[in-house]
Design brief:
This protein is α+β, with helices and mostly antiparallel strands. The protein is about 20% helix and about 30% strand. A five-stranded mixed β-sheet has the order 3-10-8-5-6, with no helix packed on it. Strands 2-4-7 form a three-stranded antiparallel β-sheet, with no helix packed on it. A hairpin with an 8-residue loop joins strand 5 and strand 6. The longest helix is centred in the first third of the chain and has 24 residues. Keywords: Membrane, Transmembrane, Transmembrane helix.
Length: about 160
C-alpha cells in the first residue's frame, strides 16, 4: 500500500513525522462558527420575509362567557368573542355544547358588532354530580385572519 503513495509522503510516513501534526483540524472550528453565523443570518432574513406576508398573520380567538358560573336550569348567558389583544370580534359563530354537564342539543349564534351573543341555555347535571362544564367553541368570521385552535374558556355549571 505504501508503494502507491508519492515518494515525499512515503518518506514522511516512514519517519513518523505525521504523529505530532495536529494541523488537520486547525481551521475546522472557525469554519463551523462562520457557517453557523451565516446560516442563522440567512434564516432570520427568510423568517422576516415570511412574517411580513399578510396572509400568514392570524390571531387566536377566545370566548369570554358572562357569567362564567351558572346553576342547572334555564339561564341566559352572554358570550363575547375576543381576539388575542382582547378586542371583540364581530361575525364569529359561537357554539355551546355538552361537556361534563348536559345540554339538550347545541346552542349557536353569531356575534354582533360588539362581538357579543346572548344564548338561552338549559344545562343539567347528572344525579350525584355537583358540577360540570359546557364547552364553548368559536368559528371565526369568513375571510378574516382569525383562528380558534386552542381550547376556549368553559362555562362552569354548579349545583347550589
Amino acid at each position: 500500500m505504501l508503494d502507491s503513495l508519492p515518494a515525499g509522503l512515503r518518506n514522511r510516513l516512514a519517519l513518523g513525522q505525521f504523529a505530532d501534526d495536529d494541523r488537520g483540524i486547525e481551521g475546522l472550528p472557525v469554519r463551523l462558527v462562520v457557517a453557523f453565523v451565516v446560516g442563522v443570518a440567512a434564516l432570520s432574513v427568510m423568517l422576516s420575509m415570511v412574517n411580513g406576508v399578510n396572509t400568514l398573520a392570524v390571531s387566536e380567538l377566545d370566548a369570554k362567557p358572562s357569567p362564567d358560573v351558572v346553576e342547572p336550569g334555564e339561564q341566559t348567558v352572554e358570550v363575547t368573542a375576543v381576539d388575542a389583544d382582547g378586542d371583540p370580534v364581530s361575525g364569529a359563530t359561537v357554539v355551546v355544547k355538552s361537556g361534563t354537564a348536559d345540554l339538550d342539543g347545541v346552542a349557536t349564534a353569531t356575534t354582533g358588532d360588539n362581538g357579543t351573543v346572548t344564548l338561552d341555555l338549559d344545562p343539567e347535571l347528572g344525579p350525584n354530580q355537583d358540577e360540570g362544564t359546557l364547552a364553548i367553541s368559536l368559528k371565526p368570521p369568513a375571510g378574516d385572519q382569525y383562528v380558534d385552535r386552542r381550547e376556549n374558556t368553559r362555562l362552569l355549571v354548579v349545583r347550589q
